[in-house]
Every structure is written in structure tokens, then in C-alpha cells.
């Protein structure tokens, strides 16, 4: 029987096809990020009807939902740069950007309620949320460590040990780091979707916002979800691209 996969050119063709899809996915992700930024900016220009800042609303909801031990703090520069608005399970703290914690905007309200929902997931022992949070820091820095790790292993093997042992170890560690990043990207979807659903429920049940404000906030949430999905698609295609590249090279040897 004719085996298509045995054709030498197939891995290369698949690699090119995946690379094209990856390029399109990256463009789509960039567009989704623009929508997020626009929604975020528009919401930041409109005051919420509660008259509460993001920090005040987060504190209010935490106390009402039985989480007085969870703190609300302003992001430091590094936290703003790498994490933005987020909930830390190790610190049991909601960190909000300066404009989010101090402004009475719709965006501030949206971010505050959603982070409170994440704090609830932690309180309730949500395994996916806890795993995502524990791997999140590593996933941010791990992809950037791949090339330096392999380079260091290769240099030490060539000029010191004269083996391939460290290079192999570095490659394995690099792939493990990539896997961590993929797991975090995968978990972002169910964790954030659950938090958004809970945030929308709190907004409706507690009548935190007017109907029009609620609609705007839900659009902001929806933009974020599209972005998370596109980030996952990009992660999958990048892994496929890497596998096909390795397979294509091995077939050509």
C-alpha cells in the first residue's frame, strides 16, 4: 500500500503548511489583543455607577463573600510588566494596576470583580486554577530560557566535556519548559472562563452595574476570552511546527 507519510517531502510540506497557519494565528492573536486594548481603553474612560474604585470594589466583594484575609494591593512595576492585574495564590492577594486600583471606571470594576472570582476559585480549592497559578511564573520565563540553555549545554559539551550529554539534558529541560508554557495556556481557557462566568453572576445578582454598563463589561470579558483561545491555538501550532521541523530534519539525514 502506498504510504503518504513515507514520501520524503511530506514532513516539509506539513511544516510549511503549519508555519503558514501559525503566521495567520499570530496575526489573529494580534488583532484580538487590539480589541482587548480598545475595550479596556473605552471602559477606562467611563466611570461606573457605583462610584467605587477597582480597589474599593474588590475589597467590598471579598468581605461580602467571606474572604477578609485576601488582600488587595497595587501592582509593583515588575508585576505590572509581567502579570498585569492578577490574583496570587502564594500571597493570597489581588494585585491591580495603578489605574485599575485607583480609578472608578468600568474597566476597573470589570477587573476587580473577575479577580475576586479567581480568589473564590482558590478558596474553593479549584485544581485547575491552582495548577495554572503555580506554573504561571515559570511559563512566562521558560520559553525565553530554551535557546540559552541549549547554547550553554552545547558550549560546555564542545569545549569542556567533549560529549553531547549536557546538550541532550538542556534540550530535554527546554522541551519541559515549553510543555509548562503549553499547560498554562491550555488551563487559561477553563480557569478564566469560569472566573468570567462567576464575575458576570456577581454583577447581575448584586446589581453592581446598570444594564448598559454590564453589557460593556461583558464585551470586555468576551474580548479577553477570544485572546486566550487564540493564544492556545498559537501554542498548539508552535509545538506542531517544532515536531515537524525535527521530523523533517531526521528524514533528510
Arrangement of strands in the largest sheet: 1-3-2
The first-to-last residue Cα distance is: 24 Å
Average pLDDT, rounded to a whole number, is 85
| Structural class computed from helices and strand pairing | mainly alpha
Molecular structure report:
This protein is mainly alpha-helical. It has one domain (4-252). 76% of the residues lie in helices and 4% in strands. The chain has 8 helices and 3 strands. It has a 3-stranded mixed sheet. Strand 2 (86-88) and strand 3 (93-96) form a beta hairpin. Helix 5 (106-123) packs across helix 7. It starts with 9 loop residues before the first helix and ends with a helix. 31% of the residues are buried. Residues 1-5 have low confidence and may be disordered.
Question: Any descriptors?
Answer:
about 250 residues; mainly alpha; three-stranded mixed sheet; 3 strands; about 75% helix; disordered N terminus
Quick structural overview:
With 253 residues, this protein is mainly α. The chain contains eight helices and three strands. The longest helix is centred in the C-terminal third of the chain and has 42 residues.
Reconstruct the topology from this structure.
Blueprint: H1 10-44, H2 54-64, E1 71-74, H3 77-82, E2 86-88, E3 93-96, H4 98-102, H5 106-123, H6 127-161, H7 165-205, H8 211-252
Parallel strand pairs: 1-3
Antiparallel strand pairs: 2-3
Helix pairs in contact: 1-8, 2-5, 5-7, 5-8, 6-7, 7-8
Amino acid at each position: 500500500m502506498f504510504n503518504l507519510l513515507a514520501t520524503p517531502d511530506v514532513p516539509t510540506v506539513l511544516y510549511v503548511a503549519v508555519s503558514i497557519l501559525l503566521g495567520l494565528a499570530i496575526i489573529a492573536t494580534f488583532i484580538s489583543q487590539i480589541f482587548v486594548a480598545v475595550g479596556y481603553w473605552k471602559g477606562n474612560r467611563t466611570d461606573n455607577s457605583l462610584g467605587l474604585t477597582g480597589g474599593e470594589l474588590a475589597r467590598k466583594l471579598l468581605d461580602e463573600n467571606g474572604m477578609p484575609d485576601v488582600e488587595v494591593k497595587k501592582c509593583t512595576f515588575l508585576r505590572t510588566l509581567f502579570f498585569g492585574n492578577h490574583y496570587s495564590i502564594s500571597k493570597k492577594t489581588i494585585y491591580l494596576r495603578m489605574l485599575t486600583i485607583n480609578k472608578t471606571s468600568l474597566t476597573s470594576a470589570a477587573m476587580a470583580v473577575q479577580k475576586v472570582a479567581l480568589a473564590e476559585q482558590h478558596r474553593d480549592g479549584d485544581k485547575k486554577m491552582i495548577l495554572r497559578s503555580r506554573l504561571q511564573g515559570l511559563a512566562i520565563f521558560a520559553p525565553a530560557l530554551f535557546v540559552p540553555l541549549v547554547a550553554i549545554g552545547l558550549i560546555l559539551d564542545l569545549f569542556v566535556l567533549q560529549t553531547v550529554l549536557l546538550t541532550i539534558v538542556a534540550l530535554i529541560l527546554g522541551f519541559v519548559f515549553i510543555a509548562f508554557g503549553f499547560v498554562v495556556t491550555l488551563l487559561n481557557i477553563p480557569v478564566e472562563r469560569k472566573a468570567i462566568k462567576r464575575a458576570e453572576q456577581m454583577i447581575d445578582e448584586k446589581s453592581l452595574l446598570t444594564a448598559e454598563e454590564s453589557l460593556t463589561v461583558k464585551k470586555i470579558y468576551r474580548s479577553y476570552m477570544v485572546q486566550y483561545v487564540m493564544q492556545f491555538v498559537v501554542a498548539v501550532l508552535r509545538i506542531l511546527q517544532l515536531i515537524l521541523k525535527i521530523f523533517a530534519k531526521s528524514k533528510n539525514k
